[in-house]
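Hey,
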Amino acid sequence: MSESNTPKKPAGDWHRADVVAELHKAGWSLRKLSAAHGMSPGTLKSALDRPWLKAEQIIAAAIGCSPETIWPNRYAKRHFTPVCRAVSANSLEFRPSRLASK
């Protein structure tokens, strides 16, 4: 048994084949869904590889779930709120540089 050193995609996001399969189960293809929304037939295909909010919402609605369910990693990045560490009053006071005294 050998282990692969290739980096793996983060767990959680559906594989593109799974998204297409779910669309087919719901009676849609990506081309039909694109055309139904007034887009060029191949337009929604790009949402399988790259984040695109509008396309993700259209695909998820056709499947019958939320986009966050299909692409949790994309939405985790979108809803990320940075946590800032608390700043004390002492750290805000002016401290002249040591180089300035030379």
